[in-house]
Amino acid sequence: MFKWLHPYAKSENLYRLSGKFLFWFGWLGFIGATVGTIWGLAFTPADYQQGDSFRIIYLHVPTAMMSMSGYLGMAIAAFIGTVWQQRHADMTVIAIAPVGAVYTFLALFTGAVWGKPTWGTYWVWDARLTSELILLFLYLGVIALYYAYEDRRSGARAAAILAMVGVINVPIIHYSVVWWNSLHQGATVTVFEKPKMDTSMLWPLLINIVAFGLLLGAFTLMRLRNDLLMKEGHRPWVKQVLEGKS
Amino acid sequence: MAFDSFAAFLQMGKHGFYVWLSYGVGLGSLILLWWHCCYSRRKIVAGIKEFEARRQRRKTSKTTERVL
Q1: What CATH number should be reported for the domain whose range is A14-238?
Q2: Which end of chain B, C or N, has fewer beta carbons within 10 A?
């Protein structure tokens, strides 16, 4: 059933395929984020209650959502690497981790900066904020474990186990605003319900969510390609690729 | 356009500091991430080329030894 996938277990094929994806993810993500951000900053009406500080939403929500999606992706890659011993899956785990950590940091930072004018405080130890902070530590833990071993395979195993165990945090973040009484507001955009936002404000948000997802993919692919080149630098295909300039 | 002037756009209705701090740090982090990807790629490619050049040198020096 998955036979069509097998050729991509070859590093050369994976490198070339990820190059094609990188082109589209990178450019679409870049254009989307530029359009969405400028639209959100300059062309949406101000919020009736929060005024213009609400515009931080166009950075805060996309980075927060993608920090969680990125973690899910990383945990799935860790599972594949552990169960089927697929070494490209292990490489994907460490390719995603730093990108996800940056996204999580941005979600926390923009949230804190938004909290000051809106709640009157940068930080509260509330369920949503604390669980997102734990997500940052999980990402950092995965990176630290990976590099803590002299042997990269042992490091990848340890990091993969942490990534899989830590995935329990993702639903906790998601439902934290439902399960606990939180200062943080509930979900603005959900799949099944009508969004709690006017369409004039919603469009740039949706564009930015997709664009930040694409950018997460693009950064991950760049890091994966670097890792492939580093690990297989002595192979003939790398020479061909570098001479062919792609 | 939601603002009357560019000055009003920068001011963000007295929330300018918070909005621009968020977007500044966001843009800076993403550029840093991108730069780091490009920088490591350059370093890795340079390393591979150097290794290849050294291998080539050793190969030629061995053949000259044999000729001598």
Answers
A1: 1.20.120
A2: C
